[in-house]
Amino acid sequence: MKTIDTINFEGKKALIRVDFNVPLDADFNVTDTNRIEAAKPTIIKVLEDGGSAILMSHLGRPKGQKNSDLSLKHICDKVSDIIGVEVKFVEDCIGEEVENATSNLQSGEVLLLENLRFHDEEEKGDETFAKQLSKLGDVYINDAFGTAHRAHASTTIVAKFFPENKCFGYLLAKEIEAIEKVMQTGEKPVLAILGGAKVSSKITIIENILDKVDHLIIGGGMTYTFVKAKGGEVGDSICEDDKMELALDILKQAKEKGVQVHIPVDVLAADDFNNNANTQVLDVDKIPSGWQGLDAGPKTLKNFKDVILASKTILWNGPIGVFEMENFANGTISLGNFIDQATKNGAFSLVGGGDSVAAVKQFGFEDKVSYVSTGGGAMLESLEGKTLPGIAAILE
Ligand code: AMP
């Protein structure tokens, strides 16, 4: 891997693609600084070597138009606080003024460019725009996992103008390592836990993952398509009838590949999709009409606990119940506790993709698992087995 540690930045200007797409409140205060903190080690490495850092990012969806609400100037002070260096700001990301600002940049200084997406060439992956960006630095560092699945100018195309001088930042390298640990080098038994709402959105992941894991837990709304396909009664539970054949095919493939699949045996069912609905625990394949499964039941959680505690490598994607409603969050919280326990016993645990990260943060498991991915879509595409363009561009 071309990591940042292989380069000495003394006297060099590092053009760093970071992901500072952070949430702002109505007064433009940053309400979650995780992404800025995540980029800090890379920036500090450049500065400590005696280099300077030019930070580029997008913020929100300005769709190629200037929009002062989405200006990165709002976050400049917060970035300064976190990095511990006063960050300068320039009101564009290409052009003469920007080139002047970067050429005057001294060792130890940091410059933040204006929102890349104020130019529609960014998302189009425009080569001329990428070339203009490339003029700003001597070395290109990609440290933005959240956009690594996009072939945008600043995430992918720009790399070709640095054939010898490009590398991954620490954050992106950590993401790549975490995915490799699960998909290639993880200690066995390897377990994937896939929850979430629909089989259709997870099918490519399931198919890719069957070659990599020893155990597969299927939970959440996906459960009912499998249960109905096997002849069970799922009442009003979420179910994709047109995916039932696919579900049977997945089970067949898993058997052929020696993957043990674990599906809920009981559920907490409700008589309405509502936190205050009446509830009862039912066998997963005997849910009468008028009832729907919204969380995993106690026997299921006991089974899942045994599998999780016996695993050495764990991937978790997707909640196993409707965790947004307090009365149906127990399954997802319990799962987090089991993974916490397994991690304490020495397992490597990775949480990533879509809503699982939200669930993990909401219930405070962030520091209890080995790694929480910073990229929803990028992680999903990695789990699907796709090579992300932002990563390929550094490796080329
Ligand atoms: P995904 O984005 O595919 O990971 O799906 C996450 C969503 O799945 C969350 O909003 C959960 O509320 C939902 N979910 C999990 N279990 C169920 C269930 N049994 N019925 C309906 N939705 C569910």
TrEMBL record:
GO terms for cellular component: cytosol. GO terms for molecular function: ADP binding; ATP binding; phosphoglycerate kinase activity. It is found in: Cytoplasm. It is an enzyme of class 2 (transferase). ATP binds at residues 202, 293, 324, 353-356. One of its GO terms (biological process) is glycolytic process. Pathway: Carbohydrate degradation; glycolysis; pyruvate from D-glyceraldehyde 3-phosphate: step 2/5. Keywords: ATP-binding, Cytoplasm, Glycolysis, Kinase, Nucleotide-binding, Transferase. HAMAP family: Phosphoglyc_kinase (MF_00145). Monomer. This is Phosphoglycerate kinase.
